[in-house]
Amino acid sequence: MQPVKKVVLAYSGGLDTSIIIPWLIEHYRCEVIAVTADVGQEDELDGLEEKALKSGASKFILQDLKKEFVTDYIFPMVKSGAVYEGKYLLGSALARPLIALHQVKAAEAEGADAVSHGCTGKGNDQVRFELTYKAVNPKLAVIAPWRDPKWNIRSREEAIDYAQAHGIPVAQTKKKIFSNDTNLWHRSSEGGVLEDPAQAPPDAVFSITVPPEKAPDRAETIELKFESGVPAALNGERLEPVSLMSRLNQLGYKHGIGVVDMVENRLVGIKSRGVYETPGGTILYAAHREIESLVLDSRTLHYKEIVALTYAELIYYGLWFSQLRVALDGFIEKTQERCTGTVKLKLYKGNVIVDGRQSPYSLYREDFATFGKDDVYDQKDAGGFINCFGLPLKVQAMLKIDGIGTHKYQEMDYSKFKRD
Predict the structure, then answer these.
(1) Closest CA to 128 of 85, 151, 95
(2) CATH of the domain at 21
């Protein structure tokens, strides 16, 4: 790597990025600009500028990306139905491309020649940040301290010691050593006692949900309205995207909704245990699925489930800016044209229970579905359908009953044909 003069660091104010500022200055003799993306961390942003400057940063930049995060990242993902390994609603994975994109823009505006991040060499986030760098401006140098030969910090305990030696205040202690990531969509927790998948997560892990047993004893019913797959109103009140997500998060928090404890397969090839809180997102996904169940025909719905798996992998693998993700958006947007309607949900002690759904584009017809007498469906017609649909099964069974070789095709005698 060529010598760097100015580095833009993706700065969260957490343990890793807090110690990286003085480390970069010490080992690269460069100017460090700290850039923080506001994607809904709320009080975690308090005091970050003062902390960054005291740590040695020459400048602190705060970028308000909440609206862009919701409209250009969260809502498209909701419309896709993407879920990683059946559980993870991709909160951290989804935010990284947005953060990295604006980090690169800041580097270009500040005339920096390098970007840096605090991701470890074992995790997924290093891939997500750096693939975005490559997609947006591959000419910028990348400094990844955790993979740097000069980096001699090998654990979070050693990182805490480094912070204390340099007078940098950090929230983590050696007794409370979880690695957290919070945004408007979710909160993730890893590390510490959570590295043992047999151990239940302690209460200290949870921040944006309450335990279901502490949730209200009475259910609360809400109504969500969608317009072309996009949530537009809550309980009859039209809300801006950020306000809508905040309100759903409050409801999910209140009723203990959205906790996922899973062992997942990281992109780098190892398994990890994570605890995720996605209160509002869990509600939103449940409602959106109900609208789709009304308006999408079976083949489109089933094919879209296949697309959702691929979409989830693209997000998880850091390929948000790939051609395939953009192409899949074309298909997904087409499926959402008639995803308009309302869904009623009952929230109760960690559960999201469907209480009704309707759409002007609903394909559900009561006169077709009824078990009573109707004039639009002749039940006798089903017999012919079953015979045709089940013919391959019947042929397989006949082979078993009659035995293979019972019916032979007569071989043609080619000797009767003469060459010209």
Answers:
(1) 95
(2) 3.40.50.620
Residue 264 amino acid letter: E
The pair of structure tokens assigned to 50 is 């003062």
Mean of the pLDDT values across residues 148-175? 83
Q: Which amino acid is at 39?
A: V
384: three-class secondary structure by DSSP? helix
Could you report the per-residue pLDDT of 285-302, keeping only the tens digit for each? 999 999 999 999 999 999
Residue 395 phi/psi, 5° resolution? -60, -45
237: phi then psi, degrees, rounded to nearest 5: -105, 120
Residue 335 domain flag: yes
Q: Is the dihedral of CA 268, 269, 273, 278 positive or negative?
A: positive
Same domain, 267 and 316: yes
Give the pair of three-digit tokens for residue 371. 């078990």
Per the structure, the complete domain to which residue 261 belongs is given by 187-367
**Which residues lie across from 420 on neighbouring strands?**
none
Indicate the number of domains in the chain.
2
Q: What is the pTM of this model?
A: 0.90
191 and 161 within one domain: no
Known catalytic residues?
Answer: 16, 96, 125, 179
Residue 71 tokens, joined: 């409209």
* Predicted pLDDT of residue 378: 79
Is the pLDDT score of 408 beyond 80? no
Q: Percent of the chain, pLDDT > 70?
A: 92
Same domain, 97 and 32: yes
The percent of residues above 90 in pLDDT, for the chain, comes to 80
Do the Cβ atoms of 78 and 278 come closer than 8 Å? no
**Torsion over CA of 241, 244, 249 and 254, rounded to 10 degrees?**
180
Other CB atoms within a 10 A radius of the CB of residue 156 amount to 19
* Cβ neighbours of 132 (radius 10 Å): 24
